[in-house]
Amino acid sequence: MSNLQSKIPEGPLADKWTSHKNSVKLVSPANKARLDVIVVGTGLSGASAISTLAELGYNVKAFCFQDSPRRAHSVAAQGGINAAKNYKNDGDSVYRLFNDIIKGGDYRAREANVYRAAEVSNQTIDQMVAAGVPFAREYSGYLDNRSFGGVQVSRTFYARGQTGQQCLLGAYSGMIRQIAKGRVTMYSRRDMLDLVVVDGKARGIVTRNLVTGEIERHSAHAVVLASGGYGTIYYLSTLAVGSNATASWAAHKRGALFSNPSFVQIHPTSLPQLNDYQAKLTLMSESLRNDGRIWVPKEKGDKRHPNEITEEERDYYLERRYPAFGNLVPRDVASRAAKERCDAGYGVGETGMSVYLDFSRSIGRFGEKTIEAKYGNLFEMYEKITGINPYNEPMRIYPAGHYTMGGLWVDYNLMTTIPGLFAIGESNFSDHGANRLGAGSLMQCAGDGYFILPVTIGDYLAGEIRTPRISTDIPEFEKAENEAVDKLRSLLAVRGKQTVTSFHKRLGKIMWDLCGMVRNEEGLKNAKKMIDELKEEFWNDVKIPGTLDELNQELEKAVKVADFFELGRLMCQDALERKESCGAHFREESQTPEGEAQRIDSDFSYVASWEYSGEGNDHVLHKEQLTFDNVKMQERSYK
Amino acid sequence: MSSFFNASVGKKFLVSVSGLFLIMFLATHLTVNLFLLWGQESYNLAAHFMATNPAIKIIEPMLALGFLLHITYSAWLTFANRDTRPQKYAMVDQSETSSWPSRNMFVLGSLIFIFLVLHLSNFWAKMKFGDMSYIDYNGVMVQDAYTLVTGKFVIWWYVIIYVAGAVFLGLHLLHGFQSAFQTLGLNNQIWRKRLTVTGTVYSIIIAAGFSIIPLYFIVNSFIN
Amino acid sequence: MEIKLKIWRQKDARSQGSFVDYNLSGVSGDMSFLEMLDFLNKTLIESGDEPVAFEHDCREGICGSCSLYINGRPHGPGDLVTTCELRMTRFKDGDTIVIEPWRAKSFPVIRDLIADRSAFDKIMEAGGFISVGTGSAPEANSIPVTKEDSDEAFDAATCIGCGACVAACKNSSAMLFVAAKVSHLTLLPQGHAESAKRAQSMVAKMDELGFGSCTNTGACEAECPKGISLAHIARLNREFLKAGFRG
User: Fold this and answer.
1) Fold (CATH) for A27-263+405-464
2) C81 has a chain B CB within 8 A of its CB
3) The domain defined by A267-401 carries CATH number 3.20.20.70
4) Is A237 part of the contact surface with chain C (CB cutoff 8 Å)?
5) What ipTM was assigned to the predicted interfaces of this complex?
6) Distances from the Cα of A129 to the Cαs of A45, A158, A205, in angstroms?
């Protein structure tokens, strides 16, 4: 079994965080000024952590690959952010939010972490409103809420369809305020290439300046990864094309365990792929499912215009299969149902790989004005891309890779298995189990960054107050830098014939087909083999123009794709090992007679945490057993 | 306060305040000029009233100051703005995104300035310092400005210059009127349309009003 | 379809750049503009040339990375689109497309079509925030905000910081960018207290960084992919003047 110490505080669930806060070690203001903290990534979790740590008095060094920290991919979150404010008086509470996340995650998340995430959600909303995030309001002037993806209360705060952007800009504004004060040094256009571990503790990072190509060493008393998710492994996903796993993967190779890598959420409402050149799939917020109804024709291969297909000839398959939740079933259920219909030949559009999302009933009932006020910008976006006006004709949608629940293993303090290395936001595995609820990502990122990490990192740093500023001239830095440079040089030295992107596309297809919405043993075994072969081909035939010491976007891509081969292989290994279906992970071998996911709690109620064991080798599994004392484990039913 | 006027918005404040002041002056100027159409006595008396009114004595230096501020600060800002894009675009298409006058205020302003110099030397300097004839209206000796003006407005190239000046002025105002309010912050989504309409009407009145006078006299000279 | 491309190539910030012509066939109408450039880069790499560097990330019009000046207009033809949202249906077979980076003294080109827009972050540092520390926020619903103010603040807050306003402005002014932030924060009671100081210091920083002044041509508003209104510039001016008169 494992020696993973999750360090969950004792005591009743609802008191754990409070008692933990009361017992962690503190660092005096004078000592904080002598401690350096590196934060990699400036999305919502990174930016909120950076501003808060700097306010506390630490010296923060912040890194992002974008030209400005404001562009981190949190900007693209559309739908909203959950909090247990219960402003609607509809029976919501911290416990219910906790319960929904645990249930939504199909009982594969840690109770204590999830409860804490729910607990701090209210403070997050307060903080954001104070920072100027313009959440939607009612005519009374008070904050509005809506119901969102898979829950029965209205607890989602939103800013039209751009909640992520507004939340991130709120955190970014706090962060730039600290930059102006000199408390934060911002290093933008930097890729983190490696983590530097000294005497078992995380002490710094090696980065590449993306403009000059210079390899840089940065040291600190602690390193925080807020580097996001790795959904771009599918090539086509809803993520920004620059999103990557390189920082997490470097940490993993240096000893941080990686948990549940195969838990990837496939978002049900993305625009379908239009052509072979496409570089990404555009997400349509799932809030659309509040007023939109999903259907396919009852007749196979019905190619008529959707408006000509009558009500009786339509199969509203979500409403049919899941009468209690209908179109609002969680993301994984909605995605698989769409795939099932398309695979069975009922899909629409030229390729038959899409389904309709229809607003005609809501427009009829509430009027075009109301629908426009709610979704105007999403409708515009759809029309811009497809040329189809969704007020007159249903949208076409299909699932797409979206969010990675898996990530670096962290304990209750958000610290990885490497002392001094923390992981927050999407880069850790902690809160969403096997499936994330809508509007839960922003909630977790902000909670981690504003309220949790700044407390728990103090507990670690209190033990570092006697450690002087760390020199970057020590052998560990030299070694890490040399290894990073060697890797870049060997990539450039291949001088083959195929582009990095062509490899990425092929890897993406393997992952999507065999380790995507539906997995099986044979497919996963094949996938592992195919990935190994493709990786070999990559290292022998990739073509990267340019040099090391210049702005070289192909080289940047190559570094990311090289890591994706290794991560993709691990995802398959993880999916293979987990012979149950749970949440977003659907193993064909484990389903109920009606075709629903079949969890096997007796065998798989654990967090699969993987240890790196050398290039090309299978990873070593460590299990963190999950116990549920505060919720009853049920079959997740939305019928 | 020095930081206020050092800032771009502070300098623009001076341009727009002086601009609005000049806009008011133009209305007065046009009103007096329109008396030309009513004949010699009306115009001469109106001009006399303007020249001798004590309020005008105060306003005159202010007007000079207004011109001075408007011209120097616009020039200052314009030259500063020229340095902001050392490498020009190979291709620029602003036809759909902004109006021609709005992009060429300095060109229009410069043309108006040339016209102004000409205009001041033709009339204002002559009336102020020149050897003018006088007419006795009920015991008051009044300068015969009418003869001076109408004497010029029968020369075709004078008329062309004056009509052109009026048109430049109109174009300048077409943007300048609403731009002045915008710079002072006296604008929002609702008032924007109103100001644009008012500004357009005002610009047309100014351009047409100042053009009609020389045209009236030259046409008359042909008819007679 | 086949198109002719005239693209600005520049090795780095210190080098002189120039236009290079490319003929690209096999472009399809359902490509986005950036996918067309991906396609060009693929052919360039395969034939041993260096690909064209350009910025992009989310490819859905929200991150503000993409920033191409296409045929004389930032983000190309069409209203309310970022470069990544621009589709090739806008162009015809045989068209010539001129692609340049944003050009302004404050946005130096660092390679090909990439300009350094970090000056925007510097302006934000001068006051684009509400000074509230983590933990000191009151209950979110304790301060009601009228829906009108909240909606208008949101309209201003939709700025993605792409810099099209600067690129479009004949004076390379950043007034629309500054105004969007000042307006957003001033309209909210939470941000009102600092509004005068904010307007002053952000404008001062904008001037210092070499952006031009506003002559109200409206080109920025017309080219803004988020349709941010000039009315916000009026509000910025108002806040600035109020601050000035208070001394």
Assistant:
1) FAD/NAD(P)-binding domain (3.50.50)
2) no
3) no
4) no
5) 0.98
6) 17, 11, 34
